[in-house]
Design a protein that fits this description.
Elements: E1 8-19, E2 26-35, E3 40-48, E4 51-60, E5 63-72, E6 79-86, E7 89-97, E8 105-110, H1 122-142, E9 154-156, H2 160-167, H3 171-182, E10 186-188, H4 202-207, H5 210-219, E11 225-228, H6 237-244, E12 249-252, E13 275-280, E14 286-291, H7 306-316, E15 322-327, H8 340-351, E16 352-354, E17 356-360, H9 362-370, E18 379-381, H10 389-392, H11 397-423, H12 430-443, H13 456-489, E19 498-504, E20 510-517, E21 528-530, E22 545-547, H14 560-565, E23 567-571, E24 576-577, E25 580-584, H15 595-601, E26 610-619, E27 623-631, E28 648-650, E29 654-658, E30 665-670, E31 675-676, E32 688-693, E33 698-701, E34 703-710, E35 716-725, E36 728-738, E37 744-752, E38 758-769, E39 772-776, E40 781-782, E41 796-798, E42 803-806, E43 810-816, E44 821-824, E45 853-862, E46 875-887, H16 891-903, E47 907-912, E48 922-924, E49 926-929, E50 933-940, E51 947-953, E52 959-965, E53 969-976, E54 984-985, E55 993-998, E56 1003-1011
Parallel strand pairs: 8-15, 8-17, 9-10, 11-12, 12-14, 13-18
Antiparallel strand pairs: 1-2, 1-16, 2-5, 3-4, 3-6, 6-7, 13-14, 19-27, 19-47, 20-26, 21-22, 23-24, 23-27, 25-26, 27-48, 28-29, 29-30, 30-31, 32-33, 32-38, 34-35, 35-36, 36-37, 37-46, 38-45, 39-40, 39-42, 41-44, 42-43, 43-46, 44-45, 49-52, 50-51, 51-56, 52-55, 53-54, 53-56
Helix pairs in contact: 1-2, 1-3, 11-12, 11-13, 12-13
């Protein structure tokens, strides 16, 4: 072995750290030395250009070790020589081309991670955020004279807590907060909450931006970024609304405990490293999308980690010198603000030139990052299907179903309330709509329950959560019922008779099943009105007031004796008699909405138990038609139930056979297409109920199956299936065919007991191979095979109004009225990660294959959660599905109209003639051509006196649309963005018509000034 007598420089590594010095910046250099002798003092002379700098390293020990020294900042690529001496004797010379080192700038974005219910009761969380915002003001004031990079800054990630602060504090205190928002010290992100956006309708997505846009309008505050924290799935429609509203930057964070990649990491963003790309909407608008590395999201000032974190980013290929770190003061949601980060930044920046720490906001970070982004940065299209929250929300199935219906009911109420306010003396309830939308959005927020999933605190949190859905539903029902009643009051009726008005909320002429409760549910509250008419008022005494279910009158119902003695239903459009039937609730457990309540109240009034069913033909588009009810000697016979073992029903369209062992459809034969629709290679049948018992990983099926046929009248025919199963002691399923409508309705009433750790499904296996699948979600149509980021899980999705499967010869259109979550493919086997499960699925983390057949499952409810969500459901639940089938060349128009007819049902109102009004016996309020253009919204403008009309092209094709307004004259038209800003005047050719050219799946918002005709 050769003995080494000289010390040696093994390696020289310039680090990313630069210190301030009187003569310029000094760089920290790691130098590895080998000393074969005893401990000595080393002298290193650094030579570059014509400069020489000497540095000492004292106490160099024997052996090889790493030492640090400071050297003057050296230009990148400079040839540098280092001479090593020990105790004055030259030992070695080392040459190096000085490598380029990034001058890092770390933007610390301080936030709280808003979650209304996880850490406190919701009301306490709101009070806590009020204190947070008061602290924001104080910290901004206290650091006003600090160095600019260390001044206190904060990002309010959602507008919901800010609204609470504004509504509950003095104008002076609010103005102080607004001052710091205006000057950029505090930033307000755009979205209302950390919303599970996949659950949202297109209008709800847009309304997520309305609160911040109101603040922007009132206070002239800047809004440039949006955040979405802890949500694994993102609706593609968000790209459209953010870009259209001028939101340039988007920074979601994903749940870090996910057990699989969210996407193909070679295409989108690698796991464990921040990245940025453009997110392109369907209409080719772009938002800059930042994917953060949030593994240390709750960290103290991250200075100690920089030496490892930043080199790790370089090794992973992160290309920029500026990076964002989300910071929070505590290891939980709803963390309070702190000055600790500011103090740490100030201390660090006094000594260190680089890495530079900056107290920042999202906008400040993005604008600095944008200076380094190349022009050819990649662009991605599509959405990201969530694999956690969409499954977890089914832990509160009844309220999820209700809030899903709220999405359509609120927009329907808004449309008719607008017409009623314009065409009658009914005041437009703007504030009620605002509260209802906020409640609906709050329910679709990630805030669900407490960190501990049972006990008094959890029950209180869940009660608050449920209240949001029920409040929105109550307001929507009340406004719609009142508005339709007021519109009905404006119809001219000559006969002294009862009438039935059927309102159509869709924008095409419609023939559909009308279902009318003889005793309708009244609006919310009891409005007060004067007893005496105006001409009988006395000035001597105050006018007495009384309560009315509808303002200034009672809600009209038919007299029981009229129904009992029999009546004729006359279509006044052609004076023809309309066939009908009366369905009656005979047991509390019947598969009807509110069956048990109506059965009980039937002892007071028999009409509570009865429902009128008929086919309403050619109801005008977004309008109504009137039917007259005349007494007759012919009494409508309500058939009695006939117990029978018959398992088959059929009409001219379908023949159905129920499997006696499972209760599902063994055969569903389309007579027109001469084709069997059920895939009998599947182990399940159509509409078959089954439970996945997670604890035992076992499938539970219906037992004690009993089938009976029920002929209720001339309109429909049903099969009733009853049975029991572990977890569901009472299951009642009704399958209905109609004589003149090609449609199958499935109504499933399930009594769920407290058995935990269960997933409840309804199976829909259709006989198709490699079908083209499309469904409605957010802004139009989605194809699960192509409209998501590459590599996303393709089998779990949240749909809106409809789903279609087509194999080139046949299309099946399917709707789910109550349960939005569907799973494609084979038997659900726990292959996706549940949100923090009590029992981990055996196959968690495996990647599901893209749908290759016509099998899918409706996930009705689930319960397997250790935190946040309830793991027990005790509920009486109704699940309603419908389907139809037709030749594939029938186009998607049939599918869209079918899906929307179920989601936007016909609305009935009883009125009593005679009365004078300015409406005819039937009319449209607005007509749209072609029918593929959907009226999403008709409402009063947020500011000013105009009306907002929002439409969506639904077919995916360029379209020339013609809208005709029949209830008013158009004074002027302006096109705005989705949040009613940036108006551009459109040319007006007619006082009643609007002509537009629409791009595929384009959504257009118009601000229209109207006057009475």
């Amino acid at each position: 072995m050769v003995k080494i007598d000289f010390a040696k420089i093994e390696n020289v590594h310039p680090t990313i750290f630069f210190k301030f010095s009187p003569r310029g910046n000094n760089q920290i250099v790691d130098i590895t030395l080998t000393n074969p002798k005893s401990e000595a003092n080393a002298s290193i002379i650094i030579k570059f250009f014509d400069q020489k700098t000497q540095r000492m390293i004292f106490g160099v020990k024997p052996g090889t070790a790493l030492y640090q020294m400071e050297v003057p900042e050296i230009p990148d690529g400079t040839e540098v020589t280092l001479d090593l001496s020990l105790d004055g004797k030259l030992q070695d010379q080392f040459k190096i081309n000085w490598p380029a080192v990034r001058r890092w700038e770390i933007h610390l974005v301080h936030f709280s991670h808003h979650n209304l219910s996880y850490t406190h009761l919701p009301t306490d969380t709101q009070a806590e955020y009020d204190r947070h915002f008061n602290s924001l003001i104080n910290y901004c004031e206290e650091t006003a004279n600090w160095p600019e990079e260390s001044q206190f800054r904060f990002t309010i990630e959602t507008t919901a807590p800010l609204l609470h602060f504004i509504r509950n504090h003095s104008r002076r205190r609010v103005d102080e907060l607004i001052k710091f928002i205006k000057n950029g010290r505090i930033e307000v992100a755009a979205l209302w909450g950390n919303t599970i956006s996949e659950l949202c309708s297109s209008e709800e997505l847009i309304r997520l931006l309305y609160p911040v846009c109101r603040l922007k309008h009132l206070y002239e505050i800047p809004v440039k970024t949006a955040m979405l924290n802890n949500i694994s799935g993102i609706n593609w429609g968000l790209a459209t609304i953010l870009a259209d509203a001028g939101i340039k930057y988007f920074s979601p964070t994903f749940h870090s405990d996910s057990q699989h990649p969210y996407w193909d990491e070679s295409v989108a963003a690698p796991k464990g490293r921040p990245d940025v790309f453009y997110w392109e909407s369907r209409d080719q608008q772009k938002v800059l999308f930042w994917v953060g590395d949030e593994e240390n999201i709750y960290s103290q000032p991250p200075i100690p980690e920089l030496a490892t974190y930043l080199p790790k980013l370089e090794k992973q290929g992160y290309p920029f010198s500026v990076v964002r770190r989300l910071v929070s003061s505590a290891g939980r949601d709803n963390a309070p603000p702190t000055k600790a980060f500011c103090e740490a930044v100030q201390k660090w920046n006094k000594e260190w030139a680089f890495p530079k720490l900056v107290m920042s906001t999202n906008t400040r970070f993005f604008e600095k990052l944008a200076t380094e982004i190349p022009a050819d940065i990649r662009t991605l299209k599509g959405g990201i299907p969530g694999t956690e929250y969409p499954i977890a929300i089914t832990s509160m199935a009844q309220e999820v179903a209700l809030n899903r219906q709220n999405q359509n009911q609120l927009t329907t109420a808004e449309k008719f309330a607008t017409i009623a306010a314009f065409g009658s003396n009914c005041e437009y309830p703007a504030e009620e709509f605002r509260r209802a939308y906020e409640m609906m959005m709050a329910f679709d927020d990630q805030s669900w329950g407490q960190f501990h999933p049972f006990g008094p605190a959890q029950e209180a949190a869940l009660a608050y959560k449920k209240q949001q859905a029920y409040y929105a539903a109550a307001q929507a029902h009340s406004i719609l019922s009142t508005s339709l009643s007021k519109l009905a009051d404006e119809i001219t009726l000559l006969a002294d008779a009862y009438h039935l008005v059927i309102f159509n909320p869709t924008n095409w002429i419609r023939t559909d099943v009308a279902q009318v409760d003889f005793v309708p549910i009244p609006p919310t509250g009891l409005p007060l009105c004067e007893i005496n008419p105006p001409d009988e008022k006395s000035e001597a005494f105050p006018q007495p007031l009384t309560a009315m279910t509808v303002k200034n009158r009672e809600l009209i119902t038919l007299p029981p004796e009229l129904v009992e003695k029999g009546f004729e239903l006359i279509d006044l459009a052609n004076q023809s008699q309309v066939p009908y039937q009366i369905n009656e609730i005979s047991e509390p457990g019947d598969a009807f909405e509110d069956a048990a309540h109506r059965y009980a109240f039937g002892y007071l009034n028999s009409l509570y138990r009865k429902k009128l069913i008929f086919i309403a033909k050619d109801v005008p588009a977004f309008g109504y038609k009137v039917y007259q009810i005349l007494p007759t000697l012919r009494q409508e016979v309500i058939p009695k139930r006939v117990e029978s073992s018959v398992k088959t029903i059929e009409n001219k369209f379908y023949r159905l056979i129920v499997a006696t062992n499972t209760g599902g459809l063994f055969s569903l034969f389309d007579k027109e297409l001469e084709r069997e629709l059920v895939d009998n290679f599947s182990q399940y049948r159509v509409n078959q109920l089954f439970i996945h018992a997670i604890e035992r990983d076992k499938i539970i099926k219906l037992e004690n199956v009993n089938i009976r046929r029920e002929q209720r009248g001339t309109i429909s025919l049903s099969l009733i299936i009853t049975g029991t199963m572990n977890g569901c002691p009472q299951c009642i399923q009704e399958i209905t065919l109609y004589n003149d409508i090609k449609r199958i309705d499935f109504t499933n009433r399930i009594l769920k007991d407290t058995t935990p750790l269960q997933e409840l499904y309804f199976a829909f296996p259709f006989q198709m191979r490699n079908p083209h699948i499309r469904y409605e979600n957010g802004f139009g149509l989605l194809d699960p095979a192509s409209d998501f980021f590459a590599g996303c899980h393709p089998d779990v999705h949240a749909l809106q109004n409809w789903l279609s499967l087509s194999d080139g010869e046949m299309t099946i259109a399917w709707t789910s009225f109550d349960a939005p979550i569907i799973r494609f493919g084979s038997l659900p086997n726990g292959n996706l990660s549940h949100f923090e499960p009590l029992i981990q699925p055996k196959k968690a983390g495996s990647k599901a294959n893209a749908p290759s057949n016509g099998q899918f499952y409706s996930l009705a409810m689930s319960s397997n959660y250790r935190t946040g969500f309830p793991n027990v459901q005790l509920t009486d639940m109704l699940y309603r599905y419908s389907l139809t089938s037709f030749k594939a060349d029938g186009g998607e128009e049939n599918t869209r109209q079918f899906g929307m007819m179920k989601s936007y049902p016909l609305h009935p109102i009883f009125i009593k003639g005679p009365q004078n009004g300015h409406f005819e016996l039937q009319q449209s309020f607005i007509t749209v051509s072609p029918a593929q253009v959907k009226i999403i919204t008709l409402k009063k403008a947020e500011f000013g006196t105009n009306y907002i009309l929002r439409i969506l092209e639904m077919s995916g094709q360029e379209t020339e649309a013609e809208l005709t307004i029949h209830f008013a004259k158009i004074q002027s038209i302006r096109r705005t963005n989705l949040v009613e800003d940036n108006p551009q005047t459109l040319q007006q050719l007619d006082s009643n018509k609007i002509l537009l050219k629409l791009k595929p799946l384009e959504i257009v918002t118009l601000s229209v000034a109207l006057e009475k005709p």
